[in-house]
Amino acid sequence: MTRLAVMYVHGVEIADDRFADTSIALLKKEFGRIAGVDPDEALVVRTALWATVYADRQDKLLRHMGGARAERVFNVLDGLGGAADRGSVAALLGLVATGLIRSLPGSPGFHFPTLRWLIVHYLGDAISYQAGPVDRTLYDGVHKVLARTMHELATEAGDDAPVCVLAHSLGSIVASDYIYDQQAEHGLHPSRTAGVAPDVAAELGDTPLERGETLAWLYTLGSPLALFAQRHSDFGLPVTVPAPALAEHQPRVHGEWVNVWDPDDVVASPLKPLNAAYEKAVTEDRAAQVAPWWLGWTPLAHPFYWNEPSVITPIATQLAMAWHRMHPADR
After folding, report:
1. What's the CATH number where 297 sits?
2. 59 domain-assigned
């Protein structure tokens, strides 16, 4: 029986393979409640942990910047960052509190270690990821992680399983680029990075899911896509969601691209106003308040999207409706 395939793509500051645990539990709970079926029988959920591609370089840079004493602090910050992404307000507040520390004992010239840690992860990830004409190593390395995840989903959910992608922050850029390269490879868009690299393609099997033909839903959460669109004079072309071939493989499934943004999150913004192509491609720019109320009115709302019921419940609803369209006899 064909199942529904779900892939989580994280943003920056991730150093924990459990980053989506809270969100996955919430998604399964809501899906089961709405669909009335066991989520473990209907859903195959995988996470694309691409942070490992950068880990060695970033750790090396941080050691150069702060020395051995600072390295222990960075390990603590990594732990707090991972807990924050799983929805821990205490961990996030801990990160904020450590941002007030100006210097470390034994490293008097290394000021504001937490802010430097943030800069290396936030700006460092974005700078390192961008593909250039000289070296695509990191860009392609990240896409290999997504390709391997897609292969796992095809193996477990079915060759033609509908795919749902939840992508947060810089992860929405990663997911968009991966999808665009695949679609360009098949002639849907002009290629801006020569399509899919050979070592990325080597991670994929020859199934509709892995060719990107069953992409049904894209949820960009707290996305800086509008900022990255400035690379193009006209803000460029968006990906096509759902994939045009979806109707051939799953005619009962109706997909969508919803861009969820919190007006207090300075990283995120609407996408439909960018140009006519985005206006047509994006189903909805959905404003949402994420994080606890006493924190959600600040830019610190940014990490909380996929742990927020008001964000996840509509996604679970779409998946539940698709499941019953695919399996009407199960009702």
Report:
1. 3.40.50
2. no
Q: Is 215 helix (H, G, I), strand (E, B) or coil?
A: strand
In angstroms, the CA 163 to CA 212 distance is 9
With beta carbons less than 8 A apart as the criterion, state whether 226 and 275 touch.
no
Question: Beta strands of 184-261 (E only): which ranges?
Answer: 215-221, 256-261
> Residue 246 phi/psi, 5° resolution?
-60, -40
Whether 309 is covered by a domain: the verdict is: yes
Q: Determine contact, residues 49/9, Cβ cutoff 8 Å.
A: no
Specify whether the CB–CB gap between 220 and 266 falls below 8 A: no
End-to-end CA distance of the chain: 15
Domain with 140 in it: 4-52+135-326
Q: Which of 262, 267, 263, 249 is nearest to 207 (CA)?
A: 249
pLDDT digit of tens for each residue in the chain (331 aa)?
A: 889 999 999 987 666 788 899 999 999 999 999 999 999 999 999 999 998 887 666 666 666 666 666 667 777 877 777 777 777 888 788 877 887 777 766 665 667 777 777 766 666 666 667 755 456 888 999 999 999 999 999 999 999 999 999 999 999 999 999 999 999 988 787 655 567 899 999 999 999 999 999 999 999 999 999 988 887 788 989 999 999 999 999 999 999 999 999 999 988 999 999 999 999 999 999 999 998 887 888 888 898 999 999 999 999 999 999 999 998 876 5
Structural tokens at position 271 = 């996408």
Per the structure, the count of domains in the chain is 1
Is 117 within a domain?
Answer: no
In a domain, residue 276? The reply is yes
Q: Cα separation of 152 and 102, whole Å?
A: 45
Sign of the dihedral defined by the CA atoms of residues 252, 254, 25, 77, in that order: positive
Evaluate whether 286 touches 258 at the Cβ level (below 8 Å).
Answer: yes
